[in-house]
Amino acid sequence: MVECSDESIYTGLTNNLDRRLKEHNFGRNDNSYTSKRRPVKLIWHQEFMQFAQAEYFEKKIKRWSCAKKLALANDEYDMLPLLAECRNESHAKNKDLDKN
Q1: What is the pLDDT of residue 30?
Q2: How many other CB atoms are there within 10 angstroms of residue 40's CB atom?
Q3: pTM for the whole structure
Q4: Cα separation of 22 and 89, whole Å?
Q5: How far apart are CA 67 and CA 79, in angstroms?
Q6: pLDDT given for residue 92 in this prediction
Q7: By its UniProt entry, which InterPro entries does this protein fall under (predicted)?
Q8: Within a domain: residue 100?
C-alpha cells in the first residue's frame, strides 16, 4: 500500500516492489490512479509465496476503508475488527438504538 500526496491509499501488487514504486513516482502511466497524486510513499507491504494468495489479499484490502488500511499500516491490529464493523444506519446492530 502506498499513501498518495492527497492522503488517499492505493493498494496493488507486484513482483518487484522497488521498480513498482519508481513507476508510481515517475509516472509510467498518465492515466493511472497515482499519476496525479504523486509523490507516493510506501506505508505497508507483505510478501507472499503464491500469486493467488497475494491477489486474494489485495482484493480484500481494496474493499477496506482508509482508516482500516492505515490501522494495518501502523501495526494497530487490535483496531482492525472494530474498523470492520458496519456503521450504516440500516445495519441490524443499529436497529432500535434510538428507542427507549
Answers
A1: 85
A2: 19
A3: 0.81
A4: 42
A5: 9
A6: 60
A7: GIY-YIG_endonuc, GIY-YIG_endonuc_sf, UPF0213_domain
A8: no
- Which domain, by its residues, includes 67? 2-94
Residue 100 has what pLDDT?
46
Buried b (16+ CB within 10 A) or exposed e, 53-72: ebeeebeebeebeeebbbbb
- Contact of 13 with 20, CB cutoff 8 Å: no
Residues of the chain with pLDDT under 50: 100
Domain count of the chain? Answer: 1
DSSP string, 31-75: TSTTTTS---EE------SSHHHHHHHHHHHHTS-HHHHHHHHTT
Would you say residue 55 lies in a domain?
yes
Q: Which position has the grid cell 441490524?
A: 92
Average pLDDT, the chain: 90
Q: What pLDDT is stored for residue 2 in this prediction?
A: 98
